[in-house]
Specification:
By secondary structure, the chain is mostly helical. The chain has helices spanning 10-45, 49-54, 66-73, 79-110, 116-128, 135-145, 155-175, 179-187, 192-203, 205-221, 224-229, 238-243, 253-273, 275-288, and strands spanning 2-3, 8-9. The chain has a two-stranded antiparallel sheet.
């Protein structure tokens, strides 16, 4: 159908609007599928264990925060210590991954020396090896060398496993930066370290943000190595803290959900505070890397 006076195809407009509405409905349904589990976890954490077992999906009849109060006030759960341990491990690990991943990635991208490509390939092989296949060897080495069950134990494997992806992204990004910038800086008398940290580093901020985001979520949520290498409850990280509410024959799901929401809170706050930088970093990393 065409409007003769204006020359507008009314049928095309209607089809476009119907398609737009249909796509919005699909996206809305997908959004609900992502949000509902969190909503369900929250109102389920406000139930008693018996009430949850009687009606898993139902709303709480008399909601209260007894699970949260119990978890936060009971020193046997070590929730605060677990959050602090995860913060310390994550911050140190991400800092080392970003710093040395940037330096190594820059050197491999810019400085030509014998074995450059071989070293680069060796780093990339770390992305091909399933990290859990190294769980037993690392456990044996750490146990016999006395490195296990320490506050710094998890930092070493986290940094090692984070290097390959960091070096891969930084190396590809640096290659996209014109060499003329460094040549001009060298003519002006800039030293290697000043060029590295004052000129190239600000330009690599988007890809370094991407690396930091990836590694923050990876270190915060890592479970297997923390379970094997850490035995002291005072040194356990957030994923381990949640498992203590699961017994051999039964599980207190309401407390598990309350503990999960408590331990998720810092990383959720981190996401919303730095959401703009996260989006910019991921987009820039996808384009340049």
């Amino acid at each position: 159908m065409t409007n003769k006076n204006s020359g507008i195809d009314t049928g095309s407009i209607i089809k476009s609007r119907v398609l737009s509405i249909f796509m919005n409905v699909i996206l809305f349904i997908f959004s609900l599928s992502c949000i509902f589990p969190l909503v369900w976890m929250f109102y389920s954490s406000l139930k008693e264990k018996r009430e949850f077992n009687a009606n898993v999906m139902g709303l709480p009849k008399s909601p209260d925060f007894h699970n949260y109060i119990n978890i936060l006030t009971n020193k046997d759960y070590h929730i605060f210590e677990s959050v602090i341990n995860s913060f310390r491990t994550t911050i140190i690990s991400v800092f080392l991954i970003v710093l040395f991943g940037y330096i190594i990635g820059y050197i491999l991208a810019r400085i030509k020396f014998p074995g450059n490509r071989l070293l680069y390939i060796l780093f990339l092989m770390g992305m091909l090896i399933p990290i859990h296949s190294l769980l037993v060897p690392i456990y044996v080495v750490f146990t016999r060398s006395g490195l296990g069950n320490q506050w710094f134990t998890l930092i070493m494997p986290y940094v090692s496993f984070g290097f390959p992806i960091a070096i891969f992204l930084v190396e590809g990004y640096v290659k996209g930066i014109p060499v003329a910038l460094e040549e001009a800086a060298a003519i002006d008398g800039s030293s290697f370290s000043r060029t590295l940290f004052s000129i190239i580093l600000p330009m690599c901020k988007p890809i370094l943000t991407t690396v930091a985001i990836i590694q923050t979520f990876s270190c915060w949520n890592e479970f297997s190595f923390a379970l094997v290498l850490i035995k002291d409850p005072r040194l356990q990280t957030v994923p381990l803290a949640v498992t203590q509410f699961t017994g051999q024959f039964s599980s207190d799901y309401t407390k598990i959900m309350a503990a999960m929401l408590i331990t998720m809170a810092p990383i959720v706050v981190f996401y919303f505070v730095f959401s703009k930088q996260i989006i910019q970093g991921m987009v820039a990393g996808a384009v340049k890397g």
